[in-house]
Amino acid sequence: MTNTTSETITRDGVKLYNLTQPWGHHMPEWPSTPAINVKVKKFHAKDGFYQNEVDAIMHRGTHMDAPIHVTENTPDIMGYPLWRFFGTGVAVSIPKGKWEIITPEDLENATPKIQEGDIVMINTGMHHKYADTDEYFAYSPGIYKEGAQWLVDKKVKMVGYDVQANDHPMATKLVDHGTGPSHAYLAAEYKEFTGRDVREDFPEWEAGHKTLMVKGGIPGIENVGGDLDAVTGKRCTFMCFPWRWKGGDGCAVRIMAAIDPDQNFRFETGQ
Hints:
This protein is 18% helix and 22% strand. The longest helix is centred in the C-terminal third of the chain and has 10 residues, at 185-194. The termini are far apart. The protein has one domain (8-259): Putative cyclase (Glucose Oxidase, domain 1). The chain is built from eight helices and 14 strands. It has 271 residues and is α/β, with parallel strands linked by helices. It has helices at 44-47, 104-109, 134-137, 145-153, 185-194, 198-201, 207-215, 228-231, and strands at 8-9, 15-18, 37-42, 51-55, 63-65, 86-93, 101-102, 119-123, 142-143, 158-161, 220-222, 234-240, 250-252, 255-259. A hairpin with a 5-residue loop joins β1 and β2 (15-18).
């Protein structure tokens, strides 16, 4: 899917960037997920106004997962405090290829330096391959327990990845985890490609999700994209808000990055 930069400059000189993939019909779907159904219910010529009806789960496109998505009796999407959705952070380049892992060493050596309290956007390069393909979903790189634990220990505020999940694909139900395998052939392919067994390398189901969100309470965002390249290597202000959805296990989000080169913008004092 083609990404084009859509930088917007406000009257205050603030540069705004969209880090979100398009949403709607024909968007790439997680394998085994029911397809999105967007139905036009009302038309201008016929009804005097335009209206859509959407039937879809929220785990598609650029979205945020909640702890309850992977672990019972844990917080829903409303359980994240508001302060986690807005603040200073970094977009870092960690290029990765087929089935490679985002490691603690990658995160430690990333530039700009990831600091305590940062919002972190990770650019592996996979957002350029965002499509309805095995390359994007089944053969993607990803993070696992050790990398997620590094982010928890660093006490970051929120994390986004330009890959298919808050986990390595070999830690999901694509292989023999949870309700899987949905793609039984992948275990043999992984063995042939790496010489190792999937369950030896990824013994825990969705350990990235569980470490980051359940243990750390840190929101994790999947399928980051848009203008990610334009802000990679920079320190920015990020904002990303899910719905106020009671019981929500995940939610579509719009991620924005802001850069204020002239420092002319200010927040109001409330007076």
